[in-house]
Amino acid sequence: MRRRFPLLGLLLVTACLNQMGPWLDESGQRLEGSQVIQYRGFQICGHDEVTFLFFFGDLYARDDHGDLGPLTNAEGEPLTYAVLDEIPQGAEPSGITFGQREIYFDSETRDDYLYIHRGNDGRTERWPRAESECDRPGSPDSASG
Q1: Cα dihedral 4, 9, 12, 13 sign
Q2: Quick one: DSSP state of residue 35?
Q3: To 10 degrees, the CA torsion angle through 8, 12, 13, 18?
Q4: How far apart are CA 74 and CA 112, in angstroms?
Q5: What CA–CA distance (Å, rounded) separates 60 from 63?
Q6: Range list of β-strands (E), 15-132
Q7: Mean pLDDT, range 16-45, rounded to an integer
Q8: Model-level pTM?
């Protein structure tokens, strides 16, 4: 019986430290994994400091150290991660939340950016659209003999 308590404690601490989800829709229902997924990049790719957000078919990144290298949009213009003092004009709430955070987007710039408003401090993170190319050993895309 004693062995169960340390395991239970570890599970509780792990659950409390999870900062990746679940993301909820406007009615408070958990979104399916194919709709919104937030995950940490892979160490083997040098992306372990990058957080990715898959949002309804598009991939965005919180890359404050530039580990993904230069990101550009379809026109070749640079895209950057930034922390803003306020929600940009034209950005609308999506109703998708995780704790004190809510996803915003501007329909004119969604191809380039998503915004995550942090209600706890009032700041907004601008996440650029990203592509992560990394051939991990054992992945279907890796070139293994």
Answers
A1: negative
A2: T
A3: 140
A4: 9
A5: 9
A6: 36-40, 51-55, 58-62, 71-72, 78-79, 82-84, 92-98, 101-105, 113-118, 123-128
A7: 81
A8: 0.77
